[in-house]
Amino acid sequence: MKTSDETHVPLENFQELPIETMRERAVAFHQELSRRRSVRSFSARPVGRAIIESCVAAAGTAPSGANHQPWFFACIGSADLKRQIREAAEAEERLFYQQRAPEEWLDALAPIGTDAQKPYMETAPWLICIFAQRRGGVTVGEDRKNYYINESVGIATGILIAACQQAGLATLVHTPNPMGFLNQFCGRPDHERPFLILVAGYPADGEMVPKHALKKKRLEEISCFL
Ligand code: IYR
């Protein structure tokens, strides 16, 4: 075991739990996350900035390649910016649905019923635009190569989605393709690549979700224990 030196300090905040508490918390977390549904109509009800800040801070605790934390979260609450982002996203989506998407892709989307119209991008109180940084470092302002960028930003995004669910927010992952327009709207530099947009807020009254989304693979189908 290592002792304290210039590079290491003791692990202090690991909290060991009684076995029964571990079981209860593991089950409760699964139950909470299994209530999560992607929603595609959002209410205009506002969500306080502090809640989004805490969820993003939770995402920022994610492990990352060399701890470079190669992510940036541009949280868009401005009605004007949301409208501009919606318009740019819908223009790409129209091309996707009318020209770019192969039949097989459209077939896969059919049960979900998506199309190029994305009104929720204006209705929802928050669009969290997530960027992946090609270069960076442990400290902001460094210009070093980043590692395992997709893995790191993907993990942080997963934590963000779980944090939103835990906080009582509905979310939707949206990935217009390409979405280079986000750099301009969010004022982000060229070495950052838009990763995805996480729409967050309350579901619209009477929101319908596709039955298709209820089908999650069973534990036995997604895991093995050897
Ligand atoms: N980006 C498009 C298409 C789309 C693609 C997948 I894969 C989805 O799971 C859902 C949608 C859109 O948002 O409509």
From TrEMBL:
Domain Nitroreductase: 34-202
Any GO MF annotation of the entry: oxidoreductase activity
Keyword Flavoprotein belongs to the record: yes
EC number: 6.3.2.34
Alphabetically ordered keywords of this record: Flavoprotein, FMN, Ligase, Oxidoreductase
EC supergroup of this enzyme: ligase
Keyword Oxidoreductase annotated: yes
Coiled coil ranges: none
Gene3D superfamilies xrefs: NADH Oxidase
Any Pfam family matching the protein: Nitroreductase
Record-given protein name: Coenzyme F420:L-glutamate ligase
Organism (species): Stieleria bergensis
Lineage: Bacteria, Pseudomonadati, Planctomycetota, Planctomycetia, Pirellulales
Gene from which the chain derives: fbiB
